[in-house]
Amino acid sequence: MMETENQQIGNQIKPKTTILCSICDLAFTPSEQKTLICTNCIINQTDITVGITKEGIVNYCRFCHRYLRPPWTLCERESKELLSICLKRLRGLNKVKIIDAAFVYTEPSSKRIKVKLTIQKEVLNNTNMQQTFICEFVEHYQQCEDCKKEFTPHTWGAAVQVRQRVDHKKTFFYLEQLLLKYNANDKVLKIEQVDDGLDFFYKSRSHANRLVEYLSTILPIRVQQSKQLVSHDASSNLFNYKYVYAVDLPKVCKDDLVILPQKLCKELGGVGRVQLCYKLTTIIHLIDPLSMKCSDLSIEAFSLYENEIEVYNLKTHQHEFTVVDVERIHTRNLNESYISSSQNAFLPKLTRVTIIRESNNYVPVTVKSHLGDILKTGQVAIGYDLTQLTIESLEDISNYPECILVKRQINKEARKLRIFKLKRLEAQNVMEEEGGERKRNQQKKQNDQEEQFEEFLDDVEKDKEMRKNINLYRDEEKIKKLSKEDLKKKQKKQVQQQKKDNDDEWQDDDEDDVKLEDLMKDLNLEDKPELAEPVDEVQDEINQFITKLEKVTIEK
């Protein structure tokens, strides 16, 4: 039913039309609503929050007090950052307009977050409607990635990665024995073995620094340091880092053939370009095969010319030579101070050796050598044959030796009479692989390392200077297996060497052999000592002694 009311507009009176609501029969002006339903009925009959989620979950890390956005973000309670995270958890807000949003106070211990939202939406013939409702979020505890790293058991705080990119492990075998002798690995958590070196893991940075400082006193190294942030406590402004020390060794090892660039030779005092590395300490010790003069190459100079220096290892390029004659080159006319200098340390051992290449129709060749106290006629020497090596830089060198002798070949049968052993580090091999071809390659690498370690034992047995830095232990099992005749032969050989004529100017190589009395006993703390007498007999003796004490009278 339609009713009419008068409305005055200026001097004219215009009638006002009202209609009744189709639901509640309340009179209202249709021009205001543009519908047949009044305002109250629209509010009661329409819900614009339909399709909007009113509950949600917020991931919270209680160790670092951060919320998952992602990423993990540090937010205070009832902050605008936390409000933004909560609103992103609600679905359906893209269809409405947000007028207002605010937090409703809740206790932190309740693990609840309440947000009061006011939204607006158009309904029924361009009619806008606002509605207010409350959304509730539950805090779920979840450990963030940074806290997982921090609370992981057996974690490490610093690591030392020692690398040498060569085809053998000779340097690492020697480094391993130095660490064991001076107990430089006492604070290590674990040791991992990789193809190019070893990884040492420590709990603290100071322990890793201690190892790096020790390595700098025994080997020429280059160190690079890096760090990675593990966790950050914003409340106390504390940072937790993991440190990694990359220790790089030069690609030069003992007994390697080194071809130096011409510019570096001038800086070293005009030495020849063809050099032999005879020792490796904090510097690289080189010797000229022609003049027998020694020179020292620092790690800084090596790093500067690293791309121009050529290195050839003995393991890959070795040749065998039979010694025909050994003739000493006398140096009596030279000044003693000249001979005793570091550059001329090998002049007293200088010899002229006639050798035969077995691969060249037994043609004799005469070369100079610094192995005068080692080589004898009839023995087999190992060295480099420069005529067989493919070295392009040799074309630019006018004068270089045909052959370079490095050491005497050791009979492999003598390994059976070896009465000492070395301790090894407990390193975990992280390069273990399973499956057909990979497994065969791994077995081949393992066999190659075992052969290299036997060669290292040969060098230790004949090098007296090297044994000063290594602890040698008795191999009780090997000694028990050896027959009495073998031991008598070995002892007789040592006695004959001690009775050798003192006028002999040459030092026999057998004098440097390892003697049984110089070896240490391997102490195993897990072994229980054997009792000299049964426990019952010892207890009876104690009881008898106490009985005698009771019978003793003390006189004043």
From TrEMBL:
Keywords: Cytoplasm, Nucleus, Protein transport, Transport. Residues 252-298 form the 60S ribosomal export protein NMD3 SH3 domain. It is found in: Cytoplasm; Nucleus. InterPro entries: Nmd3, Nmd3_N, NMD_SH3, OB_NMD3. It comes from the Eukaryota. Pfam families: NMD3, NMD_SH3, OB_NMD3. Residues 21-249 form the Nmd3 N-terminal domain. Transmembrane segments: none annotated. Residues 431-451, 485-512 are annotated as: Disordered. One of its GO terms (biological process) is protein transport. Residues 503-512 have a biased composition (Acidic residues). Residues 320-408 form the 60S ribosomal export protein NMD3 OB-fold domain. One of its GO terms (molecular function) is ribosomal large subunit binding. The keyword Protein transport applies. Residues 436-448 have a biased composition (Basic and acidic residues). One of its GO terms (cellular component) is cytoplasm. The keyword Cytoplasm applies. Belongs to the NMD3 family. PANTHER family: 60S RIBOSOMAL EXPORT PROTEIN NMD3, NONSENSE-MEDIATED MRNA DECAY PROTEIN 3. Acts as an adapter for the XPO1/CRM1-mediated export of the 60S ribosomal subunit. This is 60S ribosomal export protein NMD3.
